[in-house]
Specification:
Bound molecules: zinc ion
Shape: elongated
Number of strands: 18
Distance between the termini: 73 Å
Structural class: alpha/beta
Radius of gyration: 28 Å
Number of helices: 20
């Protein structure tokens, strides 16, 4: 009996897990058995591996072949094991010297003709191999740039099984990964493009500085989408850890463009209201894939026309917004994907979506209330800023006196405000933004604002105009306004502006 072993990897959620692919060739009836909890894709892999080997000028051994994927208890999915299975079989026959592949990670799906095809999740899998001490990886050419993002690993790009065997035999070395493309040349959307809507511009600035979720209501054309699209331009760039995390998620979802660099900008996702729940939060048949929610991790998830989303879709966001993680249950086990997003909801005032004052709008007050009620209270409860944008009048566009601030000016203020918040709360708790500070902490003696400052707020609470949660939300936003103004703590004016930023609140 002969034996060979090749290092491969699978995915457990967003984490790469190393898998050893072993091939044993024994005497007996020719045939292939794959063991180690294979899913249906692995059974198909048998056929692909056999065809790829014979179509690459190699000889398929007429022996009893057992391919085992170890560890057995890891749920292995997908087709990324093909290439390592083919190499293990050839190594088992003794026609391929596998010593050269010691400690080398091998990933790739095989076409019947021996072509090496891209797989999803290469970045986290190579990262796992690097942690385990691997220093080289052979990956599909389309995934090579992504694999090369992992420091300390020499990456080889493979197009075909024949190219890989030639490399192992020392005949022709595999090429290095193609150079990483520069950041996309597309001009970044800038806050300076938004005309009028001073409160709207302030709302996105405060949302960026405090990490607050945001709801914007207003007639079509008021600029809700323009404002939401510009929120990422105000957020800090992703640091190394966050960039790897986000790029890994995009890799697993299969949406990373070949040759794309590390994702450095906070992502922006705007799923349409007709999107399925799976497209929104993740899922799908077989391997659950990250949805828009996880693709927006550490960035912005924008739901335009929020009341048009199904109740089920909106409710499925509640838990992840709380936990920063989405757990997708499947018959084949549970997968968890990071989902720390800043949510921006937008809605028209009424279901007919006609401009404000349009005589053709026959929506009654009741219809409007019902329409808004489709976004549930528990979801709105998590949204600190809820602003109704006035309709944009032509007059606004021509009477603006001060030049509009560009995103980079506002982003600098946002960065300072965020740093101030982190430094302040560090004494008490570890948070990155004011939005994460629990109401109980805000109301502690140490952080309690003087009575004259909160007088207006307490009055509204007593009158029942403001709920207890609403009270905390105004406080949080006021702290962010204070941070933006460079104050030690917010004063009466910040409280008043925070109340203004709740104009049009639905509750
Ligand atoms: Zn209407």
């Amino acid at each position: 009996m002969s034996y060979a072993r090749v290092l491969c990897a699978g995915l457990d959620g967003v984490t790469g897990e190393l898998v050893e692919v072993e091939a044993m060739l024994a005497d007996g009836l020719p045939g292939v058995t794959v063991t180690g909890l294979p899913d249906s894709a692995l059974n198909e892999a048998r056929e692909r591996v056999r065809a790829a080997i014979t179509n690459s000028g190699e000889t398929w051994p007429m022996r009893r072949i057992i391919i085992n994927l170890y560890p057995a208890d890891l749920r292995k999915r997908g087709s990324g094991f093909d290439l390592s299975m083919a190499l293990a079989v050839l190594g088992g026959t003794g026609t391929l010297p596998l010593a050269a592949l010691d400690g080398v990670l091998v990933l790739g799906e095989l076409g019947l003709d021996g072509e090496v095809r891209p797989v999803r999740g290469v970045l986290p899998m190579v990262a796992a191999a690097a942690r385990a001490g691997a220093v080289e990886a052979v990956v599909p050419t389309a995934n090579a740039a992504e694999a090369a993002l992992v420091p300390g690993v020499r990456v080889y790009a493979a197009d075909s099984l024949a190219a890989v065997t030639a490399h192992i035999r020392g005949i022709t070395a595999l090429p290095d990964p193609p150079p990483v493309a520069g950041p996309p040349a597309a001009a970044e959307l800038d806050l300076a493009d938004v005309a009028g809507q001073d409160m709207g511009r302030l709302a996105v600035e405060v949302a960026a500085a405090g990490g607050h979720h945001l709801a914007l209501f207003g007639a079509p054309g008021a600029g809700k989408t323009m404002l939401a699209q510009r929120l990422p331009s105000l957020l800090p760039r992703l640091d190394d850890g966050a960039a790897l995390e986000v790029t890994a998620l995009h890799s697993i979802a299969g949406v990373l463009a070949p040759g794309a660099p590390l994702v450095r900008r906070p992502p922006y996702q705007a799923p349409h209201h007709t999107a399925s729940v799976a497209a929104l939060v993740g899922g799908g048949s077989g391997v659950p894939r990250p949805g828009a929610l996880s693709l927006a991790h550490r960035g912005v998830l924008f739901l335009d026309e929020a009341p048009e989303f199904t109740r089920h879709a909106l409710d499925s966001l509640r838990q992840p917004l709380e936990d920063g993680i989405i757990t997708l249950g499947r018959s084949r086990g549970v997968v968890a994907y990071p989902a720390r997003v800043q949510l921006v909801l937008a809605a028209n005032p009424c279901p007919c979506a006609r401009p404000a004052g349009d005589v053709a709008c026959g929506c009654t007050a009741h219809t409007k209330r019902r329409y808004r009620g489709r976004v549930s209270g528990p979801l709105l409860d998590r949204i600190d800023i809820q602003l109704e944008l006035p309709p944009l009048k032509a007059a606004h566009l021509f009477t603006e006196s001060a030049p509009r601030e560009p995103s980079r000016t506002v982003a600098a203020r946002v960065a300072d405000a965020r740093a101030a918040a982190v430094a302040r709360w560090a004494a008490e708790l570890e948070v990155r933004t004011n939005a994460e500070v629990p109401g109980t902490v805000l109301r502690r003696r140490r952080w309690k604002l003087p009575e004259p400052v909160t007088w207006e707020l307490r009055k509204r609470l007593d009158q029942g105009v403001l709920s207890a949660r609403g009270f905390d939300r105004v406080l949080r936003v006021a702290w962010t306004l204070g941070d933006l103004a460079g104050l030690d703590r917010p004063g009466k004016e910040e409280i008043n502006i925070a109340l203004e930023l709740r104009r049009g609140s639905w509750q």
